[in-house]
Amino acid sequence: MEQELFDLVYRAVVNRDAAYDGLYYTGVRTTGIVCRPSCRARTPKPDNVTFYPSLEEALQAGFRPCKRCRPEEGGTLRPDAVLAAQADAVIAAEYGRRLTLPELAKRLKISPSHLHRVYKAVTGVTPAAALEQVRLARARELLRDSGRPVSEIGRAVGLRGASHFAAWFQRHEGVSPTAYREQHQGGIADERECNVPAHP
Ligand SMILES: [Zn+2]
């Protein structure tokens, strides 16, 4: 497991946060017990912890289920909504990178097809569509509210190359980034003119 992901899940253990329950299982090597990440028992030291992506793997490695948090029970109820929420969190943090479905799935330690199916079932849209929406919203915001060059805005939302960004924006919004910016800034100017008393 990557250190970054370990830290994320271990933080949930420290905070007794249930966000990773059903996604990872905490094997505590000093006690030989496997727990849900949210278990209320004493927090194990990170050096003594191994996270398993399934309870089966933890059991095969010789761990016994905790009698307190009972990781073997109700493990199938939460994961779908949790997974979708975690995908949203990764998208929100990473939309500026070249984030692909396989990469997103890798971050969540599941297969791309499973992610696609679960995410769509929970949210009604595909993860790719959700990523596009986040990028578009951010691009519109930057075009309206910042003076940053169009190519820079493209990079900021994960689309390199000004023409690539312009074509993508046009395809979704029906106008070019430059036209969108002009339309909006024109709107502000018109409003301002209306509020200024007319000169004699
Ligand atoms: Zn436990």
Describe this structure as you would to a colleague:
The structure is a single chain. With 200 residues, the chain is α+β, with helices and mostly antiparallel strands. The chain has 3 domains: 3-65, 3-Layer(aba) Sandwich (DNA Methylphosphotriester Repair Domain); 79-126; 131-195, Orthogonal Bundle (Arc Repressor Mutant, subunit A). It contains 9 helices and 4 strands, in the order H-E-E-E-H-E-H-H-H-H-H-H-H. It has helices spanning 3-15, 55-60, 79-94, 101-107, 112-123, 127-145, 150-156, 162-173, 177-195; strands at 25-28, 33-35, 49-52, 64-65. Strands 3-1-2-4 form a 4-stranded mixed sheet. A hairpin with a 4-residue loop joins strand 1 (25-28) and strand 2 (33-35). Helix 3 packs across helix 5, helix 3 runs parallel beside helix 6 and helix 4 (101-107) packs across helix 5 (112-123). The longest helix has 19 residues, at 127-145. The protein is elongated. The protein starts with a helix and ends in a 5-residue tail after the last helix. Zinc ion binds at residues 35, 39, 41, 66, 68-69. The site of zinc ion has 6 residues, from loops.
| Number of discrete domains | 3
The CATH class name of the largest domain reads Mainly Alpha
Sheet with the most strands: spatial strand order: 3-1-2-4
Query: What would you report as the Rg, rounded to the nearest angstrom?
Result: 23 Å
Percent strand equals 5-15%
Oligomer: single chain
Overall body shape: elongated
Mean pLDDT: 86
Protein name: AraC family transcriptional regulator
Pfam family, one: Ada_Zn_binding
GO molecular function: DNA-binding transcription factor activity; methyltransferase activity; sequence-specific DNA binding; zinc ion binding
Cofactor: Zn(2+)
